[in-house]
Amino acid sequence: MDWVLARIDLDGQLKDFVAVEVQSIDTTGNYQEERRAHLAEQHFAGSSTAGFNWENVNKRILPQIIYKGHALRREPACKGGLFFVCPHPVYNKIRERLGGNLMEYQLQPGSLSLMWYDIGPEVPPGHIRELELKGSFTTTVDQVALAFTAPTNLPDSRAYENAIRSAL
Asked: Any bridge partners for residue 17, and if so which?
């Protein structure tokens, strides 16, 4: 986990805790030529191969939060589940991959609370831009796992076949 928020009593004993996973998005491709041109104060005339690695949401982020959510469910003191904090575009990709059928739940063992943020308005140089909470949604790890392994937002039947035939 990236963070564990623990509540302790006046005697210093653990009362309960929640876990927090913070995720941004990684990139794919290469931007070295653009960097070299920028550092040399030259115009870059090529095209970038760099971009956001959205497939990472499906291959790594979702399995990771499902696994961690199940592991935390086995912890009696983890009464509020797992909190997953991410940028708004990452949340949008997660919801796109999982479809629109997740049911909302209250905080409980085994819950997964998604919280998404965006960068606030521009500020003068030397100042720090704020993060703005754009939304939150609590469901369960089971809801996410089911939506991940049995998606309802699949492409039309024969979509791959038709794409291959049109390429031929």
From this structure: 6
Check whether residue 35 and residue 59 sit in a common domain. Answer: no
Q: Are residue 83 and residue 163 in the same domain, yes or no?
A: yes
Parent domain of 152: 55-168
Judge contact between 15 and 9, C-beta under 8 A: yes
Point out the least confidently predicted range of 4-8, 51-55, 103-107: 51-55
Q: Would you say 39 and 16 are in contact if contact means Cβ atoms under 8 Å apart?
A: no
**114 touches 94 (CB < 8 A):** yes
Instruction: Encode pLDDT of 70-93 as tens digits.
Output: 999 999 999 999 999 999 999 999
Query: Tell me, what's the pLDDT at 85?
Result: 97
CB atoms inside a 10 Å sphere around CB 50 = 14
Do both 119 and 90 map to the same domain? yes
